[in-house]
UniProtKB/TrEMBL annotation:
PROSITE patterns: D_ALA_DEHYDRATASE. This is Delta-aminolevulinic acid dehydratase. The keyword Magnesium applies. Its cofactor is Zn(2+). Catalyzes an early step in the biosynthesis of tetrapyrroles. Binds two molecules of 5-aminolevulinate per subunit, each at a distinct site, and catalyzes their condensation to form porphobilinogen. The lineage of its organism: Bacteria, Bacillati, Bacillota, Clostridia, Eubacteriales.
Amino acid sequence: MKDIYPGFPVQRLRRLREKAVLRQMVRENHLTPDDLIYPLFVIPGENRTNPVSSMPGVSQLSIDLLVEEAIDAYKVGVKAVEVFGIPPHKDEVASGAYDPNGIVQDAVRTLKKACPELYVITDVCLCQFTNHGHCGIVEEGKILNDPSLDYLAKTALSHAEAGADMVAPSDMMDGRVAAIRQALDKGGYEHIPIMSYSAKYASSFYGPFREAAESAPLWGDRRTYQMDAGNSEEAIRETALDIQEGADIVMVKPGMAYMDIVRRLKDNFGLPVAVYNVSGEYAMVKAAAEKGWINEQRIVLELLLSFKRAGADLIITYHAKDAVRWLKEQA
Ligand code: PBG
């Protein structure tokens, strides 16, 4: 036995695993409610709940019910939400995105009034607001970069004016972080941070979200602006640029299949890294759990902890409310 490998039996890694207390004490990474951001979908009207069929447990909510859900989540221990808006009308220039009385702006104002302590982040994008479903302004079948920047900047500024605590651009146009930073600073919102979806991949994992946000592109796809799944070096370039442009927090999206990118960003830059545990990942877990094939609670908590281990500081997840409840039950 002594010669099985050098060090044995002096080194026995199982010693630290024997007792639960010690396992807890030597655990390197922890998941806490502070890490989680809960996405919410807001629709026009009153007293309306639209369940998203591919995301069991997630519904589009009118502002009144959104506030109820947010307050409920806050009471459970969720500290931050990210708001996605579905406007009553869509057009070529995404008017609803930067309308001071648009769906997101109204929702933010109402949320902050009802629950000032809740940290409210807004998704800044045009795709829910354009009639073609692309994240920028379109001309002759092309998604134009520079003309889109003004619209994105206006959108972010209008969110800040409505009371958003942080803005999160998810469009993937070049230069949008700089454009947004400039607009915020000019408007007197130099204190509002930008969480940039820096390494956002063109992914099939967004399928259910596009039902939830009614934002699927009418034609084509997002491959001319979102990143190619095969690329890793490019994620570094994207993120370095975003930081140079003024991003305060950088994000990797999707999550599960992109944990290597989370680790690379964490190791390369000194900034907080967020990860988006996207709709398709949520749908897979929910479907398998419904079938009784996996233990939902354990899978979710393991998954979220693994994001922390990969290097994420913040996790945007539809599981947030459940996860916080489970964490509290365990404590
Ligand atoms: C909008 C946006 C998307 C998601 C967040 N913001 C969809 C997309 O880029 O098509 C996806 C979120 C999810 O799948 O949970 N641009």
